[in-house]
């Protein structure tokens, strides 16, 4: 199969904190693990009709995080609504589902409120609005980031385990972009099957003729896209349309760029994530090459891992 990755995943199916919990590994003190960062400075906040009291974003990727809202006194009739927002880049934020705090009024002010963030984005912050009268409050984000001397090793192990599972299942686990090269268009079929499963979108299909002139095909006119859930995605000819008949360039004349993989770690089936943790444990405990008895199987297999991944394997072979 002639496929080249363009953009690798930006997150992993399991976090460093997940793996440490699985390994029961934490060498720091309770106080040393915690970092408290002010998101929105405490003080009297003026009336707003929208969520314009916005806090500073905090990096929580791979860590446990709690968002704290510290309320002082509300002005007469004043109310405060606060919610958690999340972002991949600390620039574009959206509301995190489940991140709205209970509205604070004069009946329940002068109290601290907290909510655990369980989303998958890298950055979080708070956004608040104040109605009727000025109110005193601020927000902070408490991050539990246990660190060990082996964090770099564990991070590398997580990536290696994910790549190993991808090899076994023939899947792309998390959002990644690929180039898939073909030497020719199908001679009989009216479809092209794309590898790795969980097709999200096809960015482009381009082909070069014998002179090297490149043509970009038009979606919904020259081809249709079938994402097909967790199975193999397909590119399909519309009714009455044929594949191009040009004489093609001799080297990689057809390039299909596509995006595939689950969009969030939480969407990956638990059996795959559990298998990854078991692979990570094995790699962590056995850091040197393992000698396999040549009279047995040609390679060592963790039977539980094999059983967990069996139903997730995509079986089609690509040339």
Write the layout of secondary structure elements.
Blueprint: E1 3-7, H1 16-23, H2 30-33, E2 34-45, E3 53-54, E4 58-59, E5 64-74, E6 79-87, E7 94-100, E8 112-117, E9 123-131, E10 135-144, H3 151-169, E11 176-182, E12 191-193, E13 199-208, E14 214-216, E15 224-226, E16 234-236, E17 254-260, H4 270-285, H5 303-310
Antiparallel strand pairs: 1-11, 2-10, 3-9, 4-9, 5-8, 5-10, 6-7, 6-9, 11-17, 12-16, 13-14, 13-17, 15-16
Walk me through what this model shows:
This protein is α+β, with helices and mostly antiparallel strands. The chain has a domain at 29-144: Sandwich (Jelly Rolls). 17% of the residues lie in helices and 34% in strands. It is built from five helices and 17 strands. It has helices spanning 16-23, 30-33, 151-169, 270-285, 303-310, and strands at residues 3-7, 34-45, 53-54, 58-59, 64-74, 79-87, 94-100, 112-117, 123-131, 135-144, 176-182, 191-193, 199-208, 214-216, 224-226, 234-236, 254-260. A five-stranded antiparallel beta sheet has the order 1-11-17-13-14, with no helix packed on it. Strands 3, 4, 6, 7 and 9 form a five-stranded antiparallel beta sheet that branches. Strands 2-10-5-8 form a four-stranded antiparallel beta sheet. Strand 13 and strand 14 form a beta hairpin. Helix 3 packs across helix 4 and helix 4 (270-285) runs antiparallel to helix 5. It is flat and about 75 Å long.
Distinctive features:
single chain, flat, 5-stranded antiparallel sheet, alpha+beta, 34% strand, 17% helix, Jelly Rolls, 5 helices, 319 residues
């Amino acid at each position: 199969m002639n496929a080249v990755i363009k953009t690798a995943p930006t997150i992993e199916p399991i976090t460093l904190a997940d793996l440490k919990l699985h390994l029961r590994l934490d060498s720091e003190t309770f106080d040393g693990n915690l970092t408290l960062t002010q998101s929105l400075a405490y003080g009297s906040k003026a009336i707003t009709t929208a969520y314009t009291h916005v806090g500073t974003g905090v990096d929580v990727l791979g860590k446990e995080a709690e968002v704290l809202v510290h309320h002082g006194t509300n002005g007469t009739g004043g109310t405060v609504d606060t919610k958690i927002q999340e972002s991949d880049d600390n620039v574009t934020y959206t509301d995190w589902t489940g991140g709205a705090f209970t509205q604070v009024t004069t009946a329940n002010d002068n109290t601290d409120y907290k909510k655990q963030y369980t989303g998958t984005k890298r950055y979080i912050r708070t956004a608040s609005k104040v109605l009727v009268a000025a109110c005193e409050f601020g927000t902070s984000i408490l991050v539990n980031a246990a660190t060990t001397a082996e964090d770099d090793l564990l991070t590398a192990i997580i990536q290696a385990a994910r790549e190993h599972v991808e090899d076994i299942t023939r899947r792309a686990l998390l959002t990644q972009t690929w180039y898939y090269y073909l030497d020719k268009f199908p001679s009989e079929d009216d479809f092209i099957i794309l590898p790795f499963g969980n097709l999200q979108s096809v960015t482009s299909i381009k082909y070069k003729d014998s002179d090297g002139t490149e043509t970009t095909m038009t979606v919904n006119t020259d081809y249709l896209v079938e994402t097909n859930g967790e199975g193999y995605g397909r590119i399909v000819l519309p009714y009455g349309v044929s594949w191009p008949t040009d004489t093609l360039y001799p080297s990689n004349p057809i390039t299909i760029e596509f995006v595939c993989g689950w969009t969030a770690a939480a969407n990956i089936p638990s059996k795959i994530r559990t298998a990854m943790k078991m692979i990570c444990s094995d790699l962590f405990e056995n850091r040197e090459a393992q000698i396999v008895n040549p009279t047995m199987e040609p390679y060592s297999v963790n039977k539980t891992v094999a059983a967990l991944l069996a139903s997730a394997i995509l079986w089609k072979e690509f040339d």
